[in-house]
Amino acid sequence: MGSLHMERQLKGPFFTQEPPSRVDFLNEIGARIICRADGYPKPQIHWQGSDNKIVTNVENFRTVLINSTLILLPFKPAAYRQDIHSASMRCVASNAVGAIRSRDIQVRAGKTLFFGIFPFIIFSFIVFANSGYELESLVRCSVM
């Protein structure tokens, strides 16, 4: 009796979950950026900075998990690092067929500044430092 032999066809990488173009997060919370890709053979995924260097772990600041998720850890405002907390990066997936890269992702860490607490309502500013002369902020109102 003959056996049925099926070969998988080679397929270049494609994103099944591409990261957003912008990730704003609070310093006391941190962020998780997910990038997933498929293809055959299974693609290798890594993160690349705007300088085209591979993004690596930085103790107490940034971790790249084995599943390619990038974790930006919570940090104290005094520990702010522009190269990590206000950076541009992308996700790259590659296999024997080829490589793809995600859109550029702008990462920005912000600091919450509370300016008013009223009965059942909390107003706060989330301030994001820019590299220029401006500060960008977001006003958040929480009803309790």
TrEMBL record:
Residues 13-106 form the Ig-like domain. Keywords: Membrane, Transmembrane, Transmembrane helix. The chain crosses the membrane at residues 113-133. It comes from the Eukaryota. PROSITE patterns: IG_LIKE. The keyword Hydrolase does not apply. This is Down syndrome cell adhesion molecule-like protein Dscam2. It comes from Orchesella cincta (Springtail).
